[in-house]
Queue: 2 jobs
Job 1
Amino acid sequence: MSEIWNKMKKWKGFRSLKVRIFFIIVLGGLIPCVILHFGILGRYMDNALTVRTNEVQTQVRIIADHLITYNYLLDNKNDVVNAELAQLSNLYDGRVLIIDSNLRIIKDTYGISEGKTIIYEEIINCMKGGGATNLLRGNSYIEIAVPIEEKTKDSSRIVGVMLTSVSCDSINTSYAYIENRAFLIEILAMVVVFGLAFFLSRHILSPFEKITEEINEVKSGFTDEDIKVTEYIETERIGDAFNQMMGRMRVLDESRQEFVSNVSHELKTPLASMKVLADSLLSQEDVPAELYREFMTDITTEIDRENKIITDLLSLVKMTRTSADMNVETMDINSILELMLKRLGPIAARANVKLIFESRRQVNAEVDEVKLTLALSNLVENAIKYNIDGGWVKVLLDADHQYFSVEVSDSGIGIPQEAIEHIYERFYRVDKSHSKEIGGTGLGLAITRSAILMHRGSINVTSEEGVGTIFKVKIPITYIAS
Ligand SMILES: Nc1ncnc2c1ncn2[C@@H]1O[C@H](COP(=O)(O)OP(=O)(O)OP(=O)(O)O)[C@@H](O)[C@H]1O
Ligand SMILES: [Mg+2]
């Protein structure tokens, strides 16, 4: 059985739900048929034979008593008994033999064997007191041997045996008739079951086909309407999930388009400035050398800006790749931070901002040094850039047994509450006009966030305008691969 099941599972068509439903319905329809056939028809035959045997046995016992009453074993000419015997053999299309204690046949309703001796195991057993025996000869007749007992007040003695064979033809005929009818009904049931299975397996699955069709239509771009197949809760759920997925994809697509247009815009701005500067130099004759120098300085600044945008974009692309690009090593975080702050020292000094580093403990963690340094120096650079003259920036390192945290707080201008949710977006800057003097592309925090997420860490910000900003980064000490 399990072998058949395994073979079925290997068959490609069996993976189709339609085929499975078809099989289930067919089996569900045919099993009752088989049970009915073998259960009822089989029992009918047994039952009919038992009823017939009991009936005949009762009659034979009555006649056996009459044999004693009329002393038939000594004189077989008794009309009453002979009439009863003839009636019995006519009724059941059978033959009755009366055998005396010497195993001699004293009456045969066929009249062939009278006077002959019969040696027959059942008869001898019956004679010895084995009681009545019934034998089924093939399916065509039943033989019933009943002892003829002479009863006195306190004893009984077996004086002969009555052997009756009864034809089963009538039972067989009705059995054959019923079997024929059953066969016809079974064929009919099978046709109905197969038809029903074929129809239902298609009908039940039609909503799933409909949903596939609708998905295909969306896929091939015929429509971008939401799909809705409400026949089943399941199809409705598939539709909802698909619609949500499409929604997310549309959002992604929009953000991609926005990103591309932002990138082009940001890349074009320095180019446009350079063009204006170069054109104005070219359009004038005898330009003084100082003006040349001034314009060329401006052009160099724009080239630097263009360069920074491209470098930042490349970093961002690197940060959005998979964790396979992570170059994880166990590093001394204290040293990384010290080195980073040392590098940023001159920038802070130029802005007249004090850099403070506080470490609560020595931390060693599995990180990608380059990415982590980039992420954290963006935060410190921002804290310096968006600070006040004479302000401070504090970097605090702490750790528990699972995570280490780096907190970058400043005494700067702060971020307006409504801007906080946007600061990680690419090219987002709070105050475009003011930010222009400060310089920047709005990619820094996007890079920081991606780098921290690649470390399976988190970043949080709290800020108050005019007071300052606190960025809190939390990263697992042991790198979690995926
Ligand atoms: N510490 C801070 N204090 C006040 N505003 C901040 C601070 N950090 C970030 N911001 C605001 O968030 C915006 C986004 O910061 P982000 O670092 O992404 O870009 P940026 O600094 O403008 O440019 P860059 O790509 O050069 O870093 C900034 O323009 C600034 O307005
Ligand atoms: Mg920045």
Job 2
Amino acid sequence: MKLVLHNYWRSSASYRVRIALHAKKVPFTYVPVNILKGEQFTEEHKAKSPSTYVPALEVDGKMLFESTAIIEFLEEAFPEIPLYPKELLERARVRGIIQMINSGIQPLHNLNVLARLSSDDAAKKEWSLHFMAKGLGAVERALEAAEREGQKGKFALGDTFSAVDAFIVPQLYGANRFSLDLSPFPLVARAGKAALETEAVQAALPENQVDAVKQ
Ligand SMILES: N[C@@H](CCC(=O)N[C@@H](CS)C(=O)NCC(=O)O)C(=O)O
């Protein structure tokens, strides 16, 4: 299977998919799309990603979009190193926490949403911090509930790296860019720290990508 990832080094949704690919040890070709320069709006990219967003994954010439769908595809296509638990309730919990981030936090501080909100950086920051703190509070409570039910360990849901970790790390990367205080979210912060030590996350780090620009 030939995989080509169309993505951007600093995009958190792209970062999720890179983590999943590296965690599963699946080789892929990296194609940068510079969303700050508007490359997502070219006809060529729109044909790959109907929403214009990154990431989009090309699989033997066919396009997949939306990071959650891409990661579930990878889970089904490459089950040898799983990112989702087998047990049904635990699996649903993974999906639920992922959605807290995917639909409850990230869309609210996406590039085009912030551009529409204001041209004032301070206003954008205040807005983003509000929704990040609210959303990460919910994730923290979900991890607390999982711990009470025995899913305790170094990663978000125990000692096995899961898709939840692949979503937490990029969300914390975004939070750090806005200097969010993580002290109200100790379980989330601990999981993010443990995940950063894995080879998969190191390989997927924004600054380690070919299109990364030194800040
Ligand atoms: N729910 C989508 C979100 C994708 C998304 O928001 N991508 C951002 C970068 S993280 C993007 O392409 N932004 C470009 C823009 O806002 O024009 C996914 O998970 O794939």
